[in-house]
Please model this.
Amino acid sequence: MRTCVDDTAIQNALMQAFEIVEKVGVTFESESGDDYFDAIARRGAPVEGDRIFFPRHLLEEALETTPKPDYSAPVQKRVFAANPFGNAPFILDDETGEIRRCVIEDAVKLYQVGETSALYECANPGCADPVDIDAPDGFIAQVAMALKYSAKYPAIGLRTTGSGAANGDVYGSARRAFRLVREFHDVWDKPVMTQSVCPNPPLAYDRECLDSLRAAVDEQQAVSLVPCSLGYMTGPESIMGLVVHDFAMSLAGLAYIQLNAPGHPTSFGISSTISNIQTMQPNYGSAEAVFIQGIFYELCRTLKLPCVISGSYGDGTAVDYQAGMESVLTTMLPFSVTEVPEVCCYPGLMAGFACGSFHKAILDEETINYANRMLRGVDPAIDDRLQEQLVEGRDAGSFLYTGSMETYQRDNYMTGIFNKRGIAQANTEESVHLARQVQQVLAERFAAYELPEHSAARRKLLQPHLPAQCRYE
Model:
């Protein structure tokens, strides 16, 4: 049931977004001679400098060619994980409490966590830009690491930058990385990865952003447009104003792609939120962040555009009550404000996408398990043998010896981490030290990890791009 916004508000927001794209315009900071930009201008879109004003008929054409999901298909609602940390450049040392830059060892451990749980469905450089990376092109190296250490679908949230690309060539770096993924999988007729692209508010796509976007389209790989605006800073201060701004930016980006490559796989996400005006920091672990995502999702759903909502957000820098509250709030609340079928989480995420914690990742996994139990609900069927079972339990004085363990496990989720031991064992080590329980789980996961087996040809392909300490022996 949708509670965050009504039909009238949705239609008004859509109308405003279309008018903004047509009358206010969106900036595309491209170099002169940008074929994509010029092609749109030749189609009759008014242009002022590097700003494009998309007429309604061109927007409708772009919407028509965009591949669309079937929102009418019945689905079991669920929560799943993309990858740990999102794209965090910093990491919380769970033993010392120190926050430091990520190193390659952290990045490898991150893939080990992702590969040892069925909750995770994607591979991505969650430890962004390790400080000890020593490859000529840091972005390509991190994509190569994802291919080496994970067998899951590459959904790359990280993008290359002028400072990290070889010779500062952002487009060339991105395109070589995407070509590497295609060669690795030897699939040439469909996308084998997704590249997320974050516009640069207000109402703009900067040059590096467009270089990554064009490289993905030119290499026929899927694109996800993910606005990352901050209310009262890079976007309007009201929730509805921020959503309309972000949706207008996304529509413009969609038109930029579809008018040049009709039918190209393009989806939407949103990582925008309000800002904390006292600290000038993003406020992701909040109801407002969920409302923004929910309304944005409803706009996408109305136009039948693919859209993903994210959860397990956190703003703090410690694995404490705040971290748990924010993670639960942003993971479960979306199902109460909109008709979203699934929420995609980034376990371990802290400090508003800036930091990651392995301990929080394990605890967030437990939150996902609880959320999925909540969504599954209760089997309403009553066992035909209930009366007989009651008699057996009464006569035995307990159902412990007469009940079905299979039925019990079907209906009840039992945590393996949280303290359910009661007062009698309140002072035991397992009850007092949750962190030790989590650390034990991590140790078991690291030990259970097996490096994906790749052919000699694949290893040879990756070898020159990997950092020195990650190369095959």
